[in-house]
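Subject: Sanity check before I submit

Could someone independently write out the C-alpha cells for this chain? I want to compare against mine line by line before I put it in a report. The sequence has 405 residues.
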Amino acid sequence: MSLAERPASDPPSLPTPHWPNVKVSVAGNELTLFEESISFIDALVADIRLARRRVWLESYIIVDDTAGRAVADALLDRAAAGVDVRLMYDSIGCLSTPQAYFDRLAEGGVRVHGFHSIRDFIWNFRILHFLNRRNHRKLLVVDDAIGYFGGMNIVDQRRLATPSDIKQRHLPLSAGWRDLHLRLVGPKQAEIAREMERLWERKTRLPLRTPATWPLHEMLTTRDADIHFFASRPSRRRRRIGRVIGPLIRRAEREIIVSMAYFIPIGTVLRELLRARRRGVRVRVVVPGNSDVKLVQWSTRHLCRRLLARGILIYERKDFMLHSKVIVIDGERTVVGSANLDPRSLRTNLEFIGVIFSRAMAAAATQFCLHEIAHSRRIRLGEIRRRPWWQRLRDRLAWSLRRWL
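---
Independent answer below. Compare away.
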C-alpha cells in the first residue's frame, strides 16, 4: 500500500523507545544527545505531537519508510489541530521519495516547500546552481521551547548494518547510521527558529523581516558557557562554514578530535589543522572505513599520506557507516551540526552548526568520539605507502575532483 493510500487512522509502527541518557545543561539550555536514529525519531515524533502553536521542520533527506511515515502522521495531526506546520525538504536529497508523500502532507494542511525543486530550475534556468547547491540542514522547532539540530536525516535505520543493506532497501547513498543529533530545550531555541524563518521567507519570496547577525568574535573567544549558532550562506564568502571552523582550530592549544562522515578539508581548514599539529596540538580524526560515497573515501585516503606524515592520527570506523559531524577542541568547545569538513559543506551547501562552549558538553562529545575510535582501525603511514600503484593513482584522481564531490 502506498503512502497516499494509507488510512489516516493507521498508526505508525515504531520500535520500543530507546531514550538516550546523556543530557547536558549549558547556560539555561538542556541538551539531549542522540547517537542512533531510533531514539531520535521517537523523540522527534513525540515532540511534534506536543505542539500547540508551530512545528517547523527542515531535512535534507526524508524517506517514505516507517520513520518518514511516523513523522508525516504527526505533522498531519498537528496541522489538523490548527498548528502552523511547515516542511522544507531538499529536492535532490529527497529524489527517491515519492511525490505522493509530500502531496499528502500539503493536502492535509502542511505548508510544504522543496528547496531548489524542478519548478525552481525551470523558472530560473540555472541548472548548475540547481544541481549543486543543496539545503543540507536538519532542523526542527516546536512552539517556543524545543529545537533540534545535528546530522541525522529522517530515515529508518534500524536494519542498516552494512552498505549492502542500503542497496537492498533502495535508500539514498547518504543515509548513515552512526551520527550525533541534539535536542535543545531553552531560550536558544529562538535562534534556530529565526534562522528557519529567514530561509523560509527567502525561498518562498516573502519579505525578509529579520536580518541575520552572527557574533563571530564572541563565538570564537567567549570563555563563558554558552551556545552559538552559525548558518552558512555560501554565496557570501563571510558566511561560509570555514569562517568559523578555521579560527576555532587556530585557537586550539592541546587537542582536536574530529569524527567526520566526509573528510576532505581544503583551504583555511586544512592549513589550520596542519599548523595546529606543528604547534604540538594532538589531532585525531575518525572517518568511515567503508564510506557510502567511494570517491570521497578515495580522496580522503590520498590526503591521509600528507596528514599522517605530519603526525595527525587517523582512524577508520569499522562495522558501521560513520555519518557524524563533530569536532571537539581542547575539551572545551564542541562543534555539532550538519556540516562535513569537505568542499561541499565548506563552500557550496546551506549548513547549520552549533558551537558550544561547555566542558560538560565537550566531555560527552569526546566520549562519543572515543567510542568511534575504539571501534576503528588506526591507519599507519607505512600501510599507505605500501598500497598498490593503481590504488594510489585512483585516490589521486579522486583528490583532483575534491571540489566537486
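---
OP: Matches mine. For the report I'm noting this point. Residues 1-19 have pLDDT under 50 and may be disordered.
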